Design the sequence.
């Protein structure tokens, strides 16, 4: 059995866009879990400020970083043409709120090098990566600085590639997880999906296959909403489970109230993997925007920048039909209340 580097059975997923705040991560730690801050969509200074704030609160925590896709920086001429077509189609949505669809932005690597440099200069205990692998040199540098390195994978082949870079542990994400898929190898179902694909089997089954292929500590991500789900993935070989949707409606979650309310609304009856909001497959509640844009191009983060003003305007207008309502397939079991109350239901 690999050494337990987590110290708890419950990890709060890094939820970018404002959900995983220092206060939320601290609440998870105080309740017996371990939370990850999310560096995605933030400047280097903002990431560092959250590190300082969480440290000042005395919490254990990790930091999650998005890996940029060199194939998208910049995208090919074919993809650029698809983006221009999508931009034109989005104008009808923009007219609803009196906003403009912005020009294409094709050079955003989410401040990749600056964030790596900052984490090397001021190390945190755990650093996880999503949307790709950081490369062996980055892995070794972070480890030398004192950080344990985690990679997020969605298949056995991705797990083997990550293990080959020398990471310390893997987050095994099933397609039923809410929010963005971490798939990074071309041809992976969730990497290319435009429909409601859940991927093969269950989270526990995927985890068991990865466990048979690599000898690293594993976190199970996707569909864990209660104690029974937790016990299932632990029995399959996980050291802990990484939960996101289960925490979205908590008081301490930084998710918009509109998002929290949508998770409990009878208006929304299913989730789907969609590229409509960001250009990368992500599981969301099916609303009008998801239904209206089933053929969004695979181009992240270019699509994210195109839709950002529309999403902000929808949020300001209280319009859940055109907001990215990330949710895993177990969203109907998400409960309101404090983080400590949700944690008690999982750990007692």
Sequence:
């Amino acid at each position: 059995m690999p050494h337990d580097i987590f110290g708890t059975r419950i990890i709060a997923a890094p939820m970018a866009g404002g959900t995983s705040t220092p206060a939320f991560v601290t609440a998870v730690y105080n309740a017996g879990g371990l939370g990850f801050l999310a560096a995605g969509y933030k400047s280097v200074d903002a990431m560092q400020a959250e590190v300082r704030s969480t440290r000042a609160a005395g919490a254990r925590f990790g930091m999650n970083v998005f890996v940029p896709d060199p194939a998208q920086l910049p995208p090919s001429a074919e993809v650029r043409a698809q983006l221009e077509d999508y931009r034109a189609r989005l104008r009808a949505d923009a007219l609803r709120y009196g906003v403009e669809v912005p020009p294409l932005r094709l050079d955003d690597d989410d401040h990749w090098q600056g964030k790596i440099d900052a984490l090397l200069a001021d190390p945190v205990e755990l650093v996880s990566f999503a949307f790709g692998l950081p490369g062996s040199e980055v892995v070794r540098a972070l480890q030398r600085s004192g950080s344990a390195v985690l990679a997020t994978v969605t298949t056995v082949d991705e797990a083997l590639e990550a293990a080959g870079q020398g990471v310390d542990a893997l987050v095994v994400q099933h397609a039923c997880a809410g929010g963005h898929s971490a798939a990074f190898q071309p041809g992976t179902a969730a990497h290319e999906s435009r429909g409601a694909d859940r991927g093969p089997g269950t989270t526990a089954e995927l985890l068991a296959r990865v466990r048979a292929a690599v000898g690293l500590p594993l976190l199970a991500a996707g569909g864990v909403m209660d104690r029974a789900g937790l016990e299932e993935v632990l029995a399959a070989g996980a050291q802990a489970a990484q939960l996101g949707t289960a925490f979205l409606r908590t008081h301490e979650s930084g998710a918009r109230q509109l998002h929290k309310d949508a998770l409990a609304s009878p208006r929304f009856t299913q989730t789907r993997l969609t590229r409509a909001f960001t250009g990368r497959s992500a599981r969301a509640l099916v609303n009008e925007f998801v239904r209206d844009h089933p053929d969004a191009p695979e181009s992240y983060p270019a699509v994210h920048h195109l839709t950002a003003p529309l999403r902000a305007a929808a949020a300001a207008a209280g319009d859940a039909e055109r907001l990215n309502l990330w949710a895993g397939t177990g969203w109907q079991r998400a409960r309101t209340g404090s983080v400590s109350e949700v944690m008690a239901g999982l750990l007692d």
